[in-house]
What does this fold into?
Amino acid sequence: MKLYNTLTRRKDELKPLNDKQVTMYTCGLTVYSQPHIGNWVAYIYWDVLVRALKAEGYTVNRVQNITDVGHLTSDEDAGEDKMLRGALAEGTTAWEVADKYSKVADDEAYNKLGLLRPDHMPRATDYIPQQIVFVQELEKKGYTYQINDGVYFDTSKINNYGKLAKLDIDGLQFGARVEDTGKKNPTDFAVWKFSNPEEKRDMEWDSPFGDDGQKGFPGWHLECSVMARELLGDQIDIHTGGIDHIPVHHTNEIAQTESITGTQFAQLWVHNNHIKVDGTKMSKSLGNIYTLSDITEKGFDVQAFKLLILSKHYRTEGNFTWDILGAAQNALNHWKATADLIWQLPEQRSASNLADSIQASLIDDLDTPGAITTINAYINTFGESKHSPAKGDLKSIEQLLGIQLVGEDISGAQKQLISEREQARIAKDWQKSDEIRQLLTQQGIEVKDTSNGPIWSRL
RNA sequence: GGCGCCGUGGCCGAGUGGUUAGGCAGCGGUCUGCAAAGCCGCGUACACCGGUUCAAAUCCGGUCGGUGCCUCCA
It folds into this structure.
């Protein structure tokens, strides 16, 4: 399995630290509001990555956290707490907001999108003591300092800070866009923030830091470092996330973890690009943020959304429009209609190497467009075939890409209708024939008269 | 302003120094009671200007255009 490694800026071969077991960490959602399709884009790619790893014979131990505290609206440790903002918007507490959107996200990801559930889905608030210990360790080693609003990591203490993003540290100065809040260096970041005494916080904890009785909460970057270490160990094989996390979040995870462990944190850093909407960034201010429900309410299949996403490489920027989704839906319908031939025509006997071909694409830096091209070529061989695809081949597609193709057989009554219609056609009773076809259409079944006889598919 | 990324045929989207990507949409034909599908055929793309090379859409330089992060937002 080769993956493009942001650390080295080239495709690197995966060489797991522990033989055939792969450890993988993904930064999960901050559960403060309704997830949108951009969130799911990353989830879909990493889902296929896990599927490909399993097909390669690896066992995968995967952590995807749930951020429910500490994520501020600015990466620079300023701004509001996203959870509190969510609570304010809904007139409830941060705890309830976290609970609500954790459930929403869970339902959408694992029920609606049918993604594979990660092995561990820790919540940051369940790891507060561990995070405090982590900060204490950093303190002991002299990596931190305390100012007014929290305990900060001193990035000047390490010599390769910013190696992931290839940051030009010297070029960064306090000034126009980098506010001077008392930090020693512009890149320093909070590992523990103190609660503002003027504000009521739903989520805050006692800690050994600050004044006596002063409450606080963990820094966002710290959470991932701690949960990864607690659940996967000092070193992991693959760390995934969005490209937006390269300069700050992942850079800081590396700084913290490697300062503690003294070894390399993740071997492979894999980042997905984003998807735009109508050629521009999805943003609240533009009001162009779509959710999974928007897609289904327009009558599209979430599987079509997955196909749309997998049609482009995870590292290239994507675009979402309803037209593009419509094209993906058409392509999916074609795949599904071909899959439904298994109920109608004898199964193709000759062995195909479909699974191997798909897998060959996936292990080359998760080349899902290549895999889809392979599948299209395969599907197209059934255009005038007297056979249906092999069930094993369809299963391979479903297992490797996570796109469901095979539906249920139609009912006996519907089969009877198709048979009656065929009798009417033989008798040239076109009126009856068309009436039956109309009836089936109302039941969501389309019948086509082919050289192989009547063939149905779902509308 | 700082740091990036990208520019492929109607749309989406791979790829790469010399060989048809593919999908979606469209057009013509065929088949067909009709419809749809299938089948056959059709667009000869790679922003622009230079350079390197026997050969560049593919490498290098520049220009133009778009766009991302730094602020709501993955």
User: Anything to note?
Assistant: Chain A is about 40% helix and 15% strand. Residues 82 and 130 of chain A are 22 Å apart (CA to CA). The longest strand of chain A covers residues 236-242.
